[in-house]
Amino acid sequence: MKTRREFHKLAVATAAGLVAPAVLGSRAFAQDKPIRVGASVSLTGPLASTKNGLIGYELWRDDVNAAGGLLGRKVELVIYDDQSSAANVPAIYSKLVDVDACDVLFSPYGANLSAPVMPFIKQRNLFMIGMFGLAGNDVAKHDKFFHSGPWGPNSGRDWARGFFDLAKAQGVKKIAIINADLEFSKNAAKGGAEVAKEYGMEIVFNQSYPPNTTDFSAIIRNINAGDPEAIFIASYPADSTAIIRGVKEIGISDKVKLFGGAMIGPQYGALLSSLGPELNGLVNSHTFVPEPTMQTPAIKGFFDRYTPIAVKQGVDPLGYYIPPFYYVAGQLAAAAIIGSKSVDPAKMAAFLHANTVDTIAGKIAFNEIGDWKDRRVLMVQLRGIKGNDLEQFRNPGHQVILDPPSLKTGELAAPYNKARTS
Amino acid sequence: MRKNSILFLAGIVIILALGFLLPWTIRNPFYFFVGYVVLQYVTIATGWNILGGYAGYINFGAAGFFGAGVYLAAFLYTTLGLPLPLCILSAAVLGAILGVLMGYLTLRIQGVYFAIATLGLVIVLETIVHNISALGGASGMAVYGPRPPGWSPGPSQYNFTVMLMIAVASVALARFVEISWIGRGLRAVRASEDAAECSGVPTLRLKLLACALSGAVLAAAGSPYPFYTSYVEPVTAFSLIIGLNAIAMPLIGGTKSWAGPVLGALLLASVQQIATVTISSELNILFVGLVLIAFVAFAPGGLADLFSRKQGRAKP
Amino acid sequence: MLSIDILLNAVVTGILLGSVYASLALGLGITFGILHIPNIAHPTLVIAGAFFVYTFGQWGFDPIFAALIGLAPFYILGVALYIFYSRVFERRGGANVLQSLTLFFGLSLVIEILLALSFGSELKSVSVSYIGSSLKLGLLTIPYRLLIPALLGPVMIAAVWLYLSRTNSGTAIRAVAHEERALSIAGLNPASVKQHAFGIATATAVVAGAALIMIGPVEPFAGRFQIGRVFAIVVLAGMGSIPGSLAIAIIIGVAEALVASYLNPSWAPGVAFAILLLGLAFRPQGLFGAAR
Amino acid sequence: MNDIVLSMKAVEKAFGAFRALGPVDLDLRPGERLGIIGPNGSGKTTLINCITGVYRPDKGSVHFEGRDISHIEAHKRARLGISRSFQIPRPFAGMTVLENLLVPLDYCHVDGSKEERARAVLTSVGLAGRISHPSESLSQLELRKLELARALVGNPKVLIADEAMAGLSGEEIDEVLSILFALNRSGVAVIMIEHIMHAVMRFSERIVCFETGRLIASGTSAEIAENPLVQKVYFGE
User: Fold this and answer.
1) Which CATH number covers residue D29?
2) Is the predicted pLDDT of residue C183 greater than 70, yes or no?
3) What does DSSP say about strands A104-109 and B231-232: parallel, antiparallel, or unpaired?
4) CB contact under 8 A, D106 and B256
């Protein structure tokens, strides 16, 4: 029984290690009482490409503090790395709430990582801004949860509806759907299939494929065999590349009018520059593009500051997809705190439910479960891309907004084969 | 031997009593979230060691058994509404069946093939889960756990106590295996399979038994997980980090006795939990990898061995 | 949907992919198949090779040329790995499987993280003129992206096989695992023969890495998805049978392509392991190896 | 029919195209001391493996006390009373000397206290002073003794000593021989496989010689020493 004593020592050391941060935290808290905003960010793991959102948080914090803080209190970010694993999320949020005493919470990235916190915030009645989780609150229906992302109501089904609206306008009758076997893609494909049925389209092909598939020739041949007029693709960056290459290699029918939809990857600088002109003609979802209908001094100012930091950190230098909405999350929290003059979750939530907030991404109003009242997911067509220079994407005309109609900056170029080569 | 057993039993009683009392004395739920994870790894390391440590059969697929437990419990609870203890029990039975199946397919040949086959178990099971819509596939499955009973102040505390009971049961099982004829036979298998067989040890049956027990404990370790995260999806349920920790923890603690994996898990899981809320980066996994290499290379007996050697030297 | 061109193309794609799998497995065929060292870090070394090729690609080198440059440094890396491995275990009089598996497991983690730290965890790919176009032969459409790596595989395999079977130092490698004593009687140092073999095995990783990154983008953790395949190939080929491994790799490639075409691509990852498990259960000595 | 304890009838074993053994017929009387000689690769070890159950013979059968055991597993044969020591000692590393003996005692049914039995056997082979030492710390001779002690602790009826004296000095060989003689006096049949010719000649009542998998000669020590076939095998033309 030699080890028993060692056990004891270890247990003590471990407990001390866990307690120490809490003690430090509460002392800092007592001195100047900043408002604490807590979040987990996927700094590592498969979702590490979303970590550029953190720059959005930090720019917001700096702006707020430069303007004197909120209600006269400084804002302090408490950020942990969830390593892209849902298993780490419960402990992290308990730490944020129970040890770090955060006043405001931002959710982890996406629905998979956010799902574990939903019962927790509902049960503890906490205020949270959701980060990019599709339909994140549709089950819990927590009244103090607000999306920073533009998915809109019924997002599980409807967020990519724009693609199907465009297809319907083109008279598409037969559609093919493929998706990666991952949460976001799978839900996109499931919702897409429902919308297609609603519009009376025939789904001639509907398959999912495993992550890390590198060869799509078989799938593309099978799609061609089904003879669709539109192809809805919900993919992740690696497969987005492989699919676009595969289409170039295998070829696709001239009947196909729309190609794309929910591909992750063509929003990011890395893929835009590596594929370059191969992306021409693609119709894909986005959250922000520098087109005249969206560009405002506020958001331009954001990117002017974002880009140098991103370059220094080695993350996506464009950052159109995620970072602005991380800044928006901060703005929403700030509006709620200032508007309700408190950090009381119920008051903050009441304010956001009752008021429209002006952010760098435009005016936002929420429904009862915190979705944006109006969906504002963009369907953009990539056009006129020459070479692999990333800077061209900062100019209008390369990511033409087709949907929603209120932001439209151009008409669909179809069929895909023609748009691809022109 | 008897005196040790009484001490062990007393330890169990004290730890279980603490498991029921602490939730009422420590108000901060955070420690129960962290404690749950640490205890989950104590169970995983203990379960892995029954086969890996005692019999010397390395299982890279701990995450497969764990994930199977996670999904079975989630499925039984959400669709059939089975009570938690039955979910845990069913998961253990499934783990045992999987263990026997794996063992039956590969144990008649050298251990290295068993190890390779277990690598595949994770991928095969993950592929299956992806393709079963009743399990939610890649979109995962929301699980709203049972309301905690009166003896526990909240869900995180309840999960903690449940996990503690599983961990204690697993350690007790591992200790029983270790000090009984099963353990002696397994150690003989580990040292020399032929010699063991020729000494009358039914090596195949013993290994299958170890596979079953190990699988059962690993799957049981996963069964409360759906209630801890309220949500299961294949990537985390079959996460590599589980397979990694399952090997690293016993190896660091020492594989010869039940105390090794417990020690290794308490240490490594605590360090990881602290790292998650302090330094946090890829360095975390890098650290585990380096520690693993260092222990294999320089201290194959693990911490337990280092301690006993040091104490042995101190004695003149 | 069951048209002849889909079937034909699926089979051809499968053969091409299988050929690439064979080059991934070649190094393991030497370390595990011949030397009996369970180097589960091999797929990760392949990924490291892919990143090497990627780095040179950034400077304008063709992937195949970059792979040739990489042979020497990877050979040295392999020798260093073997020296570390033998230092660790020979002090204890031979390695036990558990410990060497764990050592290589830890090693692969370390390599992965080092790659992630130095290249980031995003996908990296090479751009060459022939990527994106394809060869059309009647009903067949074969992307060069697949064709060229698939031709690279058999060339390398043939070279290694000829080396092992026709040269003295190659024969020494094949002998070292069984006849260590005989080898030292013949005046050869078994340790240096093993170092050499490990070096060659690791050098094949850079060529396999080039093949992999030509087919599609690669990220630091991509090696994990290959572990099953490469072990399935080496084990089912009958440990150390190099022509056998090419045949098994093609069988696995075709099986995966057919499953993807006719069943559902989402079942494809399980194919290699299902074949491996069945193989281990019913013919543990491998399909191309003699009974032991 | 109790004058034959172990009998092999037309046993054959091949590995691929290589026929390692047989066909071989061989009987063993209870309490007999049988020596098996033959050059390396002559099939001696394959023969033992067929008797102990490590291999299943391709053809032919093995009978023990009148019962066909060709298809039962090695550990069951051990429990029936066929015991062996290994050419290269295989102690259960990580266990003490005493524990090494407790393994067979756990699985073979022996009356009385296991620990007392183990201590008695260890004393009889001269390892009494090493009972609680780890088995890795033993000397070569002690390992040989441990190997024998582990083989005989379960009260076997047949003990197969596979080169139990290889690498030992003259005095050490005598020590091992005396252990085997003592064991044989208690009624255990002993099969000795050995290259050390003077030892096997001294020990065996009957010697058989193997060459390329076949039994080529059988007889007393003196007969074998005179046998031209055996001489040819050992001394060439």
Assistant:
1) 3.40.50.300
2) no
3) unpaired
4) no
